[in-house]
Amino acid sequence: MYLYHYGFTELPFTLTPNTSFYVGLEPHSEALNVLLVALKNGEGFIKVIGEVGTGKTLICRKLLNEIPEHFVTAYIPNPYLTPDELRRSLATELGIPQAQRMNVPLLGQRIQERLLKLHSQGHSVVLILDEAQALPEESLEALRLFTNLETETRKLLQVVLFAQPELDSRLNESKFRQLKQRITFSYKLRAMTKPEVQNYIEHRIRVAGYKGNGLFTKAIAKKVAKASGGIPRLVNILCHKALMLAYGQGKFTISQKDLQLAINDTESVTSSSKVLPIGLALLICLAAVASLIYFKGF
Predict the structure, then answer these.
(1) DSSP helix/strand/coil, 188
(2) Taking the model in full, what pTM does it have?
(3) Most CB within 10 Å of its CB: which of 84, 91, 164, 239?
(4) By C-alpha distance, which of 250, 226, 251, 252 is closest to 238?
(5) Alpha-carbon Rg of the chain, whole angstroms?
């Protein structure tokens, strides 16, 4: 699309959580530090809560990349699983043969044996679940029972939950009070501030290979921050659309109009930011035409 137009080597504002674009924002760095300290201390349950698009999955992947070598990780990105499926997923992640075929009692025995063996070898085992608010009720209880596996001095299995605020609402129910009491460390992600949004945008375009100046001005970044509410995913969407619009007109800087059109076209941004009735479709067509002309030139 607009890679060569701006001199990018890769797209700077994709929605895929890519750790090479990790900025080290204060809330993200704090969350990562909380996780690493809690895991090193052997805590049983740890959770990170954040609204949609605040960077939970990015932190999760960053944790997987930076966790000390003596940890063995079991990562489950989609935990909408029954207790049986959850146990089998854990067993598979731990490398237990025939995990999908064993009966439940034998499976439980094999999991405990594997955890004890890893412990004897000096390893700590951590189960990491993304989107944990989707766990069925019975699976939340199964998760609590996992942490009953322990020696006299240490938990055999630690659990990290990344989830939307709905998980906190569920844990406040009396039937989950035992699980809630076992969560010893918790961190709640906040949205980015205006200066953080500006730093975030600048960092991403530099990582993507941009070498010029003034692509996103300070005023534009402030407007992106206001419209997005500081949510990283929405910042990415707005910046990507604004870049596409400017490219479609052959420009090399983002204007207020470009950004406003991007805002108008994005349902999740604050409604107070949508002031122009102009649609985005015409300028997307311009982008397509510009692309066609560019490639015909070769």
Answers:
(1) strand
(2) 0.87
(3) 239
(4) 226
(5) 23
Max Cα–Cα distance, the chain, nearest Å: 72
Query: Residue 49: beta bridge partners?
Result: 163, 188
Which of these, 246, 245, 247, lies nearest to 281 by C-alpha position? 245
- DSSP code, position 265: T
Phi-psi region of 122 (alpha: psi -120 to 50; beta: other; left: phi over 0): left
pLDDT of 282 reads 45
Cα angle 108-113-116, degrees, rounded to a multiple of 5: 125
Say how far apart CA 225 and CA 162 lie, in whole Å: 24
Q: What are the beta bridge partners of residue 188? A: 49
Give the tens place of pLDDT for each residue, 180-221.
Answer: 999 999 999 999 999 999 999 999 999 999 998 889 999 999
Give the amino acid at 279: G
Find the mean pLDDT for residues 17-39.
Answer: 94
How many Å apart are CA 94 and CA 76, to the nearest integer? 12
Query: Is-contact 131 160, C-beta < 8 A?
Result: no
Question: Which residue has tokens 């070769």?
Answer: 298
